[in-house]
Amino acid sequence: MEIASGDYRNGHRFGFGTYSLSDHETHQLNLTRDTEVVRQTALNLAWSHGCPIALELTDPANTEYGPIAMAKRYSEVNQWFRYIQAKGKRNPFLCRGLTVPTLRLANEPVGHYEEESVPPSHKTHIAPMTGIVGYALPRIFIESINAQTRRYWDEPEHLRLPYLISKSQRVDELLARLSESTFIYTKARATSILHHTLAVGVLTEENCRTAFENLANQLSEHAPFLMREYNHLSPTDKQAHGIAEL
User: Fold this and answer.
1) Counting Cβ atoms within 10 Å, is residue 83 exposed (0-12), middle (13-18) or buried (19+)?
2) Which pLDDT tens digit goes with each residue over 74-109?
3) pTM value surpassing 0.85
4) Distance between CA 111 and CA 63 in Å, rounded?
5) Could you tell me the CA-to-CA distances from 87 to 18, 75, 177, 189, 214 in Å, in that order?
6) I need a surface site. Which of 68, 104, 167, 201 has the fewest CB within 10 A?
7) Residue 40: left if φ>0, alpha if ψ -120 to 50, beta else—which one?
8) CA dihedral angle for residue 182, residue 175, residue 71, residue 87, rounded to 10 degrees
């Protein structure tokens, strides 16, 4: 593994999503038999993604994930995160929340991470893709595309990013609105959406309880139907689906 220089590795900043694979590179990765080459690619993508447990997830012995699956997932999510960032430029204040690291609160020190998978700044700042909003936004957007019954350009206005961005004053509001619209206008299950929007793994890794509480307030206001489903889930259901208990 290449030693990181500050927040950068291979020219990509930790947690900014600037690195993804082209279709050709993905095809070549599928053909590669050298596990170490595949894993190194996955680790490079993980750095750009801001994953604090990349070694665990890309371990060839990890039968649930592993290097090839995680390389593709990191690449896909990074790509859509940049797409959302580009659309967010219509709202400069909102865009700042997707492009600037946030300072960790003194009473919420960083949670679970691997020393080799993060830069020193991870202990004091939350990179754009590492917090709950940057983590969940591209994943919910992917969920909304995969769960639609119509072509993306024929989708309801309430699923279109420009519309949602124009209605949102803050990034967690945008996430709440996108989550609600995905629940209402697509076939995505509430648990599939909440698995991302209120990912317990992010809470464990980032220990950003205040951000989750703020997001819960936005969900209560802008995603009432989704939150009704959340409130009907038992603690056992939430645990089974990786959904944080608020």
Assistant:
1) middle
2) 999 999 999 999 998 888 888 888 999 999 999 999
3) yes
4) 24
5) 15, 19, 15, 26, 23
6) 167
7) alpha
8) 100
